Amino acid sequence: MANTMEEFEALLNESFEMDTPAEGSVVKGKVISIEAGQAIIDVGYKMEGRVDLKEFANPGEEAELAVGDTVEVFLRQVENARGEAVISREMARREEAWDRLEKAYADELRVDGAIFGRVKGGFTVDLGGAVAFLPGSQVDVRPVRDAGPLMGLKQPFQILKMDRRRGNIVVSRRAILEESRAEQRAEVIGNLTEGQEVDGVVKNITEYGAFVDLGGVDGLLHVTDMAWRRVNHPSEILTIGETIKVQVIKINKETHRISLGMKQLQDDPWDAVEAKFSLGSVHQGRVTNITDYGAFVELEAGVEGLVHVSEMSWTKKNVHPGKIVSTSQEVEVMVLEIDSTKRRVSLGLKQTQRNPWEVFAETHPEGTEVEGEVKNITEFGLFIGLEGDIDGMVHLSDLTWEGRGEDVIGDFRKGDVVKAKVAEVDVEKERISLSIKALDGDPFAEAVGGVKRGSVITVEVTKIEDGGIEVDYEGAKSFIRRSDLSRDRAEQRPERFGVGDKVDVRVTNIDSKTRKLGLSIKAREIAEEKEAVEQFGSSDSGASLGDILGAALKGGDE
């Protein structure tokens, strides 16, 4: 009997060991009731436990559980203080989930999950029993400001990394979106052809253009393809969210980049340029842009011409175009050249005004008196500002009749208002020569007005020097060299003259350039002798020269 009892006990223990599940394992149980958000589960051997219903729910869904359902749970403890088994569906699910996820990771398959919490640097995702980390950068293709609407939704994720020992899983939502975008993109691009007209929505505007959504794929509409006219910034034409008509200009099959254009759907204004803007015609335009080398002027929408800096002003030569015109200014321009292949129009601004040198030449013939301000003083003369914003130059040699120009230029200051006479106007070279000394008339010309070469004139001695004497004739100074003082060598002594003496001299030369009279007493004496000989006989008639001269002088005295 005892034997039997022992056997029975052994069998009983054995059955207990067999049927009593071990703590820490996954067991099967049956739902016997559902109350207050919990399921009461019988896990056998009169052991029951409670599990919150939400543990049975899939991410982002309600729990679907009914009495009588068989479920797998994790047995944490056989009995607690309340005499119940401590069981957990979540832990059973976690074990299950890790097996499932590891397989999905190995096969590179997507897994379903729901974002349920926010942590530093990203979010937590429930993958149906296992918790994964979703970095902020992996939420969407573009940065997401508010992830609220994505919370709790069942959606696919890609597992980037997992480590079961550490309990780490990193997932990405972005990878899925990019994949589906790429598929969508390929499909949209496959349906597009170059030259096709499509509708798109402006998604983003940058300085160089706008990105347009063509239904899952973006195209770039460059600023130069928005309009035929110059567009400084795309926001002048477009607003974000606006639907626009565009033409597909180019599709790059490798990079999947799509170039779009708007102006291609409008008439090209260049088709009519040559007919509308003939060479030499004058038009009103608006300055759109100013650079160092000139100004761009819009003749009509889409047709712009360049006024090169050299064609801007007759008078302002080395000036920045911005000093002559300003942006948005209305100006009158002349068409100088059209190059349709390069789509270039050369314009002139100065051609619409008369050449100021021409005007000056017409209104100021040589000899006209002018007045102006000294603009500049250089080593070779003065620059005087004249009407029409042009300058005239007074050369050193035109400053004074007396002395050297170098000596008197120092008397002038910038800003002085001076008078001068127009000496010459060269329209081609844009040069105006002026003379200040001409204002007083030419004292030399006036003095020697009636004097000719060979004339005998009376001069006054003003200075005695070793080399000769200085004399004055009506205000014109001259110098008679020693050798010209007498035909007689013994008489060629300057000291025999005194200052104030009146002397008759013969004019040997009149040099209006150097403004000098060539004078000689010797030449006068020789000429007088010649005359006497002709009048009173030849020199070989036996009469001495002294007799002839004596007679001539006598005759002169009588």
TrEMBL record:
**GO annotation, cellular component aspect:** cytosolic small ribosomal subunit
GO MF annotations, alphabetized: mRNA binding; structural constituent of ribosome
Domain S1 motif: from-to ranges: 24-90, 108-174, 195-263, 280-350, 367-437, 454-522
The Gene Ontology biological process annotation of the record reads:
translation
SUPFAM superfamilies with a match to the protein in the record: Nucleic acid-binding proteins
- Keyword annotations: Repeat, Ribonucleoprotein, Ribosomal protein, RNA-binding
Which PROSITE patterns does UniProt cross-reference here? S1
**Per its UniProt record, what SMART domains does this chain match?**
S1 (SM00316)
> What Pfam families does the record point to?
S1
What family, per the record? Belongs to the bacterial ribosomal protein bS1 family.
What job does the chain carry out?
Binds mRNA; thus facilitating recognition of the initiation point. It is needed to translate mRNA with a short Shine-Dalgarno (SD) purine-rich sequence.
Name of the molecule in the record: 30S ribosomal protein S1
